[in-house]
Fold these 2 entries.
Entry 1:
Amino acid sequence: INVFAKVLYEFVAEPGNNELSVNEGEIVTITNQSIGGGWVEAQNSRGEVGLVPEDYVQRVSGLALAGADDDEWDDEWDDGKSTGGYTEEGGEGGGLNRGAASMKISLNKFPGFSKSGPDLYLLSKQGPKGKEKLPIYRGEVGPVWLYPEGQLDCVVADPKKGSKLYGLKSYIEYQVTPNVSVFHISAAFGPTLKRLSLPAADLLGRFEEEFIKMRMERLQGWMTRMCRHPVISSSDVFQLFHSYKDEKDWKTGKRKAEKDETVGVMVFSVIEPEETLPDLDLLEVEQKCEQFSRFTKAMDDGVKDLLNVGQEHWKRCTGPLPKEYQRIGKAFQNLSSVFNSSGYEGEATLTDALTAAGKTYEDIAQMVAEQPKKDLHFLMETNNEYKGLLGCFPETIGVHKAAIEKVKEGDKLVAASKITAPEKITMTKRASTMSYALQAEMNHFHSNRIYDYNRVMQLYLEEQIKFYETIAEKLRHAHGQFTTM
Amino acid sequence: INVFAKVLYEFVAEPGNNELSVNEGEIVTITNQSIGGGWVEAQNSRGEVGLVPEDYVQRVSGLALAGADDDEWDDEWDDGKSTGGYTEEGGEGGGLNRGAASMKISLNKFPGFSKSGPDLYLLSKQGPKGKEKLPIYRGEVGPVWLYPEGQLDCVVADPKKGSKLYGLKSYIEYQVTPNVSVFHISAAFGPTLKRLSLPAADLLGRFEEEFIKMRMERLQGWMTRMCRHPVISSSDVFQLFHSYKDEKDWKTGKRKAEKDETVGVMVFSVIEPEETLPDLDLLEVEQKCEQFSRFTKAMDDGVKDLLNVGQEHWKRCTGPLPKEYQRIGKAFQNLSSVFNSSGYEGEATLTDALTAAGKTYEDIAQMVAEQPKKDLHFLMETNNEYKGLLGCFPETIGVHKAAIEKVKEGDKLVAASKITAPEKITMTKRASTMSYALQAEMNHFHSNRIYDYNRVMQLYLEEQIKFYETIAEKLRHAHGQFTTM
């Protein structure tokens, strides 16, 4: 059974690079989904086969090709989106977005503070009722979130296939097990099993398993990151997801969550900087804001650069390089079998050694081809996740900037009787809360980033060391068989 | 100063492979002679730069381009050829002969037994006078040469540039030091220094040194191989070359050597199988001959295959692969400097570690690029030498086959009174001598081959092991700098 895909953007193959040129709207057959590194192998209608960036194509079912409406599915999942941040859209979510990106919400996209301007919050009449406040306190590095004692966590496992729309749409359901026993709010509940489903695209054949595993890892990474975030993990809907026991619970909670007013920019209304933190100096705030902005942009560039380099390297490691080691291995073995036909006595030691050396290079070929999945994969997944996170900052910083501008206009607004003097004071205080929240968020980001990059580099280098050591060991073994006595 | 080269054969570049298409007769500028692996980097008149197989081009001097006659030089060196086998023609000698080859005598070409038919020897009236006989005796593996007790040997060193034809032709003179003290015939002489000159092509600029070194290695390899061969090392001219003391000595000896009649097929007249070796059975001889022929052809294919694979691998190791490691290194360092600008406290450990990791990958890039010269080089040189040796066998085997055919016609020739009955007996005996000589030569070849391939594989694998171990060690060092405490 073929896996078809629709080409979303034109892609021009680099010559000699095993790539396939495709045009927007073209339908191709996916011949290998497990290339990795952001690539899939596809075949066009002329039978040409080559690599295409995976997010340049969108998997479609044969039935969808025959005219079924894809939007219906999207609508349904758009609905899912409003209940929290844990759904994922489209088969190509979280891929490497070379050029334009098409996902609506992908696993690597961290929810931003708000898309609307800051006014709603800055000028709102009253704070939220009965909401527990999220404090910001003065840490060693500056303003920081208060982290809950028992951190929310969950384990994503046990993928199961399902289908809906009379079999037209298949999806994968993952089991999510929250560690609610240590959850500081819902500690009363024992661990419960939840099933979270994601559209499965049209996964068929022998690559399915690997593909599902990769998506499961991404979901796990995303869930863990959400759990680690004190603001998100304390949101009603997130807690509901972790603590609900049955369908009824979920529906009630969902309805309640839909009425939650502390969404968007109003999230700042539940944030409360501690008394010890003074109101901020506007100029200083603007400078900090500028620094965050520069940093996130620079990191975005750096991360994308690393992803591009990794993608190229991935292709070489899974394509031409192992082929070459294989050819070297074959050439040694070939020479060995020629020598074996010499009829000369005392040939066996050399021919055995040459065969062993040849097989060693064939082993190396396989190791080279499999290595990216062991190391580069995680390096790229982490950077991909960060690319998504960084994509949220411009909006967050933008809302904050708008708030600062509003405060600057404060006196003018009072003079024009647009706001009262006490309102101006409230507005200034709230802008200060936003500033502290942004700083706490940046510090949260930095501390996570330092941990994450240390961790992923350790993993990467550990696997690289193992790789080179194993090769050296194999070669040492092969070397031992030659003799010049 | 530019090094120009004339394109000898059309070469069509493989796309995306950093190659340059060139046409026969085109003049290109050599921009890098030290690529190695059978490649040079050249620039055409349109300014395009890329790799071209080194034996597809012939270096020419600016003066030669301006109309100087190259043949004059060749003639002079043709003269040199007649005095022995130790001169080398042309700047491109010993290169990888992809496609047609153009050299006259290259360093890797072993002198064959003869180009003429076997009749001269088979039907000659008398044997050579006063010549020491070269025995063939029955060894463990069959007929073998008698190896002299003290083997002739020499050291090639100390290259010096010189010029002739009023500076139009430059050459490199190498100092050849024979170990005549252990030479079984000329032991009376103490070690003397000889200088052997080779045309230098037009070597200019920074690659000269490396190029001269490579040619010196080849000359050394060729001299050693000649010294190791009992028939060649016992030839008058070879001994003269090793033992002469002054110009006069050399000229006298050369004149004498030019009168030597035991050249070409007559070399068999000084070969004498021991009494214990019976006259050979014709059918058996033909079968052995057929086996030699098959083996040398198969090995020729195997060697060429390995050379092609090696050439491709060389190009990748010195081209795209190190570039990629460099890009990985740069991406890590780039990310490190971005992180360094975060303004977040406690950033230093990660940024230092990332910088170190980046530098490590830059080191690896350099190691990858330099590695072929440390290992692949010797593997290719050895196979190149063997390609040359194998190229001589068809002729040798052909002469031998012709001798067998002649013997088969023996009775007919006697009946037609073309030869006498005693001449037929002599002819049969001499054909048997040729058969034993061929077998001794094959056994000589096999035993040398087994030693040489064991040796070169040991060298290759030793360097490969060192390479991978050094990388692992470097990475271990980089890994140690990351921390997730």
Entry 2:
Amino acid sequence: MDAGGGQEIEQLIRLLGRLPGFGPRSARRVALYLLKEPQTRLVPLARALEKAGDAIRTCSSCGNLDTLDPCHICRDPLREHAVVCVVETVGDLWALERAGVHRGVYQVLGGTLSPLSGTGPEDLNVAPLFARLEAGQVREVILALGATVEGATTMHWLMDRLVAYGGVTVSRVAQGVPMGGALDVLDDGTLAAALGARRPA
Amino acid sequence: MDAGGGQEIEQLIRLLGRLPGFGPRSARRVALYLLKEPQTRLVPLARALEKAGDAIRTCSSCGNLDTLDPCHICRDPLREHAVVCVVETVGDLWALERAGVHRGVYQVLGGTLSPLSGTGPEDLNVAPLFARLEAGQVREVILALGATVEGATTMHWLMDRLVAYGGVTVSRVAQGVPMGGALDVLDDGTLAAALGARRPA
């Protein structure tokens, strides 16, 4: 017996141990923290999880996770809907939003092209972007992909497809994103600089 | 807006950010991980939290957190109920159980004496131990408290009270070099204790 008693406690520790950044030790620590004062710690968290799980939607337009579909960004009339920033993950979108450096909308690919992990173009969430491009609703596409091999591969694939749309400016975030770095761990200043110094692709 | 949308998501991130070892960044990472696949990640965790919260009891005998009261240790007839190991927290109890080094029962104090944080003897869960001592049910008390100022203060206070029970053996866990530990990373206090408690090889 690992946790000292109770199938329910062991199951909780097992699930906590699967969270990113968690090991058995941190899972036990968090479980103990929660179980020590269930009413003020465990119950509110369980309730918040349930509410978020019920409310969560994937935006059918951009791929963002939100409680609305279309998400609050896609339905915001004050944003520049003709400027689309392409990111890999929702975490990247959140990072750019926290930095407040992009006034347009987004397209969340949900991944990158990767022959190794078997991710092909058909796995990327790009259809809504090309639909908007076809409809002539896009003036500029900003490629904000990570400076990784997969990010670069994905960017080149996208650029190849974007040349078909003559009137559309395609730019990429400036190098300044550290090699091998993911966007969502960068500080706001770096994100702002990278976006501000974007150049024609 | 921090999370990119939805009061429910923000509330979840806020609560996750309060967990021990969490900051805003890890809270967002875990929230994203859970929200990305709600059915296989978020819902099972919410359910496990709810179940554990419903099932959890504080053992009225030793202070352990379990789904039973008395806990599975206190009701185990194969354990030596006359040997009581005194620990500070349920986490300490779980650690000793994982190590499988104690065949008796426990008394979880739930804290240590600390004038700074205002924890006095009346805040410690010691009444069940003294009730058992009064009833003559205890042969040995093992003090397994942390090697901190508060742990030492608590231990001395307990030893003062335990001398009243003449027939009871009182011992304390040894201080020294941890298994696998190198000497040059240990603090002076540990080295002094380890050297002072040296025994014939």
